Fold this sequence. Notes:
- The relative contact order is 0.08.
- Helix 9 crosses helix 10 and helix 13 packs parallel to helix 15.
- Strands 15-16-17-18-19-20-21-22 form an 8-stranded parallel beta barrel.
- 20% of the residues lie in helices and 19% in strands.
- The N and C termini lie far apart (85 Å).
- By secondary structure, the protein is an alpha/beta fold.
Amino acid sequence: MRSATKTVELRSGAPMPLGASFSGQGVNFALFSQHATRVRLELFDHPDDPKSARSIDLDSALNRTGDTWHVWIKGVKPGQLYAYRVDGPYDPKSGHRFNFNKLLLDPCASAITQIAAWDFDQAFGYTPSVPDGDSIPSTADDAGSMPKCVITEDHFDWRNDVFPRHPWSKTVIYETHVRGCTIHPGSGVEHPGTYRGLIEKIPYFKELGVTALELMPVFEFNGGQVTSALGNSLKNYWGYDPVSFFAPKASYSSLTGLGQQSQEFREMVQAFHKAKIEVILDVVFNHTAETDLLGATLSFRGIDNSIFYLLEDDKRFYKNYTGTGNTINANHPQVQEHILAALRYWVQEMHVDGFRFDLASILARDTNGSLRQDTPILERIAKDPVLKDTKIIAEPWDAAGAYQLGDFSERHWVEWNDKYRDEVRRFWRGDDGTLGPLASRICGSADIFTHSGKGPQNSINFITCHDGFTLNDLVSYRYKHNEPNLQNNNDGAGENYSANYGFEGRTTNATIESIRKRQIKNFLLTLFISRGVPMLLGGDEFRRTQEGNNNAYCQDNETSWYDWDYLKQHKEIFDFTRGMIAFRGAHPVLSKEQFYTDDQIQWFGPQGAPPNWTDSREKLVACLVHEDKQQALFLMFNAGYEAVDFNLPSALPGTTWYLSVDTSRQAGQDLFAAGKEAPLEKPQTYHLNPRSSVILLARKD
């Protein structure tokens, strides 16, 4: 073992924990690499330094325990920059792509330096000159263009921070993007586009009534990267290409000091917890930003490519179940430990409340690509003693055809329910054959979850999410308009079950606008009266638009940013959303964590008889929900083009029907607060307007 500086005191160090651990007197560095033959730790003084200030070569006899390389250095403190060089065989046919010329990020780094743009021309670990994978390693040293790892101080004064721990029955999720939520000039915050910007919006989230924010990826990623060469104006906005599983995105921090992004992230979580709002992270453990064999070598590939990634039989190539070029090998015990360590870190050190796993079915694939029923990593996540009380949400499919809705792992896993999304959309569009599916989705999707022992709380219900149309665009565009993505409008889903009601896009036509507004209210009402866990796409409560773009992953601009001026223009929709969230909270029968029994809910057609479930053309249905012996709800849905007089069931003895919600009415008369419901003029029938939904409440006078 040798050092570039004689005054540095070195010790062999400890193999665990992996990463860089500050102990007060110095830092222990530990890196896993099974196939490495040489490891060098480099310390830097500045983020853009092309050469290290100190260089420590690790001795395989003194500084290696099993497959872990380690060293302890006295005097190193938080704020120190570092990276690795790892040598070994460069043998792509055997899955090895070591290149000592490459500067590599520590996979366990808790912070990474922020740079304006990552130079991918210099970031390649080899020369991609031959398309069949027989490339040769690059001899260029890329240290000047690579970001560096930052040692951070784990201590933070949480001031008796308490995790809100809302039960699923009381959870309302708001999906949003850290930068996009407040970066627009009209956001009204002092720190736009940052974690602090979200803190400034806490009063707004409290007023709206949501209980959890689900943040799109905050793991460090290269914001300058797009998944194909689409032009300099397009950037990786969504962030579904992680570089590190431990490091929060530096550019989302208003603090500019090295490693300060970790501090600001903690401050954000602490502030949300004080407001009794949970923080859920959208996490990507299925692939990394290194993409395929022509991608950049940043970390995992250069440290131990054959361990971290699933490779084809011809190991020059990567299995690609993600659609992004590579797939993380979650079958390997060390990779499983890495994922679990990352999740524990975000819970223990950053106090997050849960995770939504992007393309989670990939974690269920074995080395041959087949889906396993008994998946160790999924079971370990669900039963881990640190993670067991967190919210664990799966996107139960992947990009290679796996689809596990209702069958994803065990009961602790909650699932995004895309059938809810599609079938509710189709009903309100007026499609045939949607009456039965609507009823099933309102009741919690028992047809999907019962057989696996799950309940309605295992269904994340949503109408829209980041991937697809916004709610405004769902009722304003019949077709996707992704031309700004520079892929000839070939990207994004082709079928969105959307409608424009007479004109494609923005219009000043009062009739069309009236229909669109009513349909938005119908979607919102349906979402918040359905059993299961409602998730609202951020900005839908004030008609945020992406101008028909249903795949805005590369639009870090006003296409994706929240224009808060819409809140003033569409306050009626905000008030309705807030009112429906409050209505759900005031009537817990709608959100119980059990499926309805036959004596708790009854279904009706307009004449008072049971609905004709077999008539595919039927667009009318209602249900009577018994809250208790003194109160009941009657919900009516009309997706047809004609009004109908709906016969009402008899109210409970000693009660009278009152109007709570009618989406066809004007603002101020469309939704009534609890205790202020309007009495009916004709308690035997209700005139249900076309394309509208109504909620009546039976209560004592």
